[in-house]
Amino acid sequence: MSLRTTNIARLAASSPSEPFDVLVVGAGINGAVSAACLAGRGARVALVDRGDFAGFTSQESSNLAWGGIKYMESFELGLVRKLCVSRNHLIRSYPSTVREIRFLAVHQRGFRHGLWKLVLGTFLYWLLGSFFTKRPRRHSVESLASTEPILELSTSDGGFEYSDAYLHDNDARFVWSFIRSAMDNGCAVANYVEVTDAKYEGGIWRVEARDVETGEALTVHARSFVNACGPFVDALNAKVGAKTRHRHVFSKGIHLIVPRLTKQMRVLTFFADDGRPFFVIPMGPCSSIGTTDTPVDEPYTEPTDDDRRFVLDNVNKRLRLKKPLDMSDVVAERCGVRPLAVAAGGSEGTDWMQLSRKHVVEVDAERRQVSIFGGKLTDCLNVGDEVADALRDLDIAQPNPRARWYGEAPDEVRDEFLQKAAALGLDEMTSPRSSEALTTRLWRRYGAEALPMLDAIREDRSMAEVIIEGAEYLRCEIAHAARREMIVELDDFLRRRSKIALVIGRDELEDAPGLREACIIFFGDRADAKMKAYFDAHPSSAKS
User: Fold this and answer.
1) pTM value?
2) Which CATH number fits domain 98-167+249-343: 3.40.50.10350, 3.30.1380.10, 3.30.9.10, 3.30.365.10?
3) Number of neighbours of residue 76 by Cβ within 10 angstroms
4) Which of 8, 33, 297, 507 is least surrounded by CB atoms within 10 angstroms?
């Protein structure tokens, strides 16, 4: 029986007399941290999502954990301070995954804010961040040119450099780390389980759901209900009859991913033609370029030709490239909405560009329901704590309220892994095409779960072979994902547990000789059908 099947059976086994303490609906970053925190504190928790974990907004971010420097323009210094503290906390807690990175910003003559004003702003930003990161610095045009020769500086009067943080792997993989933590603490977790109805009666939530993979119905009982559906919070609240003081408006953002534009490990920062921040962000062998900020009426969005033209035109103006980028250079696209929390009766006429990503945790005490509006990855640990504190105030028992529910495995576990990896000669098995040593990569991705992989490699050296060239995934990693990471569709692995689909073009991926072997490990005799479904859903590469 698979891990997912076992967890669905646990969900269905709940009853009015033996309910879960909490059912969390939605497994993006807000739902994942809520479940991880509650389970870590000892509550009996269930978590479901109608799609895959991090399968919507949480897979479309810029892969940055930043302190909100843009909010300084609107003088939201309290929010900036809070986000900087949260960013610092993430860097401390996930040193292998969330890392400081330098942002190199180019200033154009005539921009609405003068260069020295922005430079002084970066020092205030550094102060608000408790001097945790490296010191900012001002750049002359000459030092910009020597630091990053790819920059187009003909209309620049200089620039500046400051620090924030980035996710070494990808946003969806980071969300998965919280899902895994929740499971390790007893949470019943299942993807592709859709809530079809929910009622609060006699102090218990009775939630009707459907296994999307099999079509089977199940009923889940819980003492409390957390709506963490991101941009779909309003729709679920309408379904369950909840009235709230907040709602969402949406802003669409897209990124285009192209082959790596510079070897420098920096985020290149510009102000686009419309004055908004615009980035070139390292992503493994690629660069992610964006983003847009366009108001939309609903969560489902696609990149338009205008979106693509905006990104390509802006990057071509600001970089000195051998030839201008066009759609033939695009490996993949990312497109999602930012759910922005506003008052339920307001925001008409509000400039959405002035709306921040701050989150709101709204509580309906009578129904023991919590709804999470807005939010961003940087502040995720605070979201988990706030949701758990709100439910504690609603008499949801949390036997271990001070438990540390986040962060990497203890140093002694890491030291054990490093010692065993060295004895095995793991780094000597690293593929010449790999971007980093196997020891570093396996620990960052899996933490303590990397220890059994060493045993698998010791027993069979073929388990250390790269199974998909260019993807840096080993045979033992595929086997681990099949057992432990609830891969239901091929996209779950290629797009979310890994970033393979973001850095390898669709056509190249289809021709990869190891992909079918990976599918057989994941899906057995359904491998060909799952591959066909994936490539039918992605009929041509972004290059076309």
Assistant:
1) 0.96
2) 3.30.9.10
3) 17
4) 297
